[in-house]
Design brief:
It is elongated, with a radius of gyration of 80 Å. The chain is built from four helices and five strands. Helix 3 crosses helix 4 (about 230-245). The strands form two sheets. The protein has a three-stranded antiparallel β-sheet with strand order 4-3-5. It has a two-stranded antiparallel sheet with strand order 1-2. The protein has helices spanning about 1-25, 50-60, 175-195, 230-245; strands at about 150-155, 160-165, 205-215, 220-225, 260-270. Strand 1 and strand 2 form a beta hairpin. The longest helix has 25 residues, at about 1-25. The protein has a domain at about 150-270: TonB (TolA/TonB C-terminal domain, 2-Layer Sandwich). GO terms for molecular function: energy transducer activity. It holds the Pfam family TonB_C. Keywords: Cell inner membrane, Cell membrane, Membrane, Protein transport, Signal, Signal-anchor, Transmembrane, Transmembrane helix, Transport.
Length: about 270
Amino acid sequence: MKALLEGSLFLTAAAGLHLLAFTALQSPTGAAGAAGDAGKALVTLAAAPARLAALVEQWEAPPATAPTPDAPQMPQPEAAAQPVQLPQPLVQPTAPGPSLPPPDSAAAPVLDTAPATPQPKPEPKPEPKPEPKPQPKPKPAKPSAPSTAQKAAGSGNSGAAGKAKSTAPSLSAAQTRSLTADWAAQILSRIERRKAYPLAARGRDGAVGLRLGVSSDGKLQSVSVTKSAGHPALDRAAVQAVKRAGRFPPAPQALQGRSFAFNLTIRFDG
């Protein structure tokens, strides 16, 4: 803004000076003009008005500079407070501990590195031979009493066992068991052929334990259920199979004259 103002003043002053000079040249006032013999023209200059001179002086004067503001004074930092010195704790003198007596310097044991002399092993003492035991004298066989009860056991699918009584001398126990087992297998085979699965059992499986009394000629004397299959229809079917078998094969000749009891197992598969 200031530069624009100064430029306007400068142009105004310059225009005024030119206009003043032009007027002075054209006006006869304040100027004497004469022409000599030589025909020369004379020009007389007059001083400019005071107002115009003031404008020129103001234009030529250097622009006033604004005063520089004083720099604000910065507060001086206060001196750091001196640290307060704390009182030093009083150090109590420690009493010297009881002095331990120096350990006795025991002499290091000397190890004997020499190999030990092997000790001779004692000779084993001979074991005394056992004295031979005296053999027992064989006892004479006792004749079997005529009223001795004999038991016959058989094997096979039925697991049959039987008892027989006889008044005549019998075979050995092994022979009796073998003959009875063969006969029980024949009886069980005849019962199995007469066995029929009952419809009332409705597909259930089971095993029925029976006890049969049979004479040596193969006649059925008694039959009873010793173990149920868990369904009455299966138990009845087992008893009916025994009764339908009728007369069984007779006992072997060596077992004639005796009566036998057999334990049989009849199985049903649904």
